[in-house]
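Lecture notes, unit on protein representations.

Consider one protein chain, 120 amino acids long.
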Amino acid sequence: QVQLVESGGGLVQAGGSLRLSCAASGSILSIRDMAWYRQASGKQRELVATITRGGTTNYADSVKGRFTISRDNAKNTVYLQMNSLKPEDTAVYYCHAETYGLGVKLNDIWGQGTQVTVSS
């Protein structure tokens, strides 16, 4: 099984920056794509950014040009660098991983979430 632990959330003023980290442990060789999602109060969870094991990235339109997802496979860690933060970025941010075995998807794994609050 895979476990994900996020860190790096906090309170920041609009225009500021934060970097989130997500460390994976357990059956890490089974991990393929990883992603960051967020859920604001009273809203549905939404995809923020994805990264494949090879490093291909994709972003939600709302964060393009401001957020950067990266991955260090040697450290089993994925990062989300968030710049030019806006109050509407306030949410709980969740790390997500897909695990595979013999080419078959096994599980969706979620971290516990980390709160990001952007003040105006």
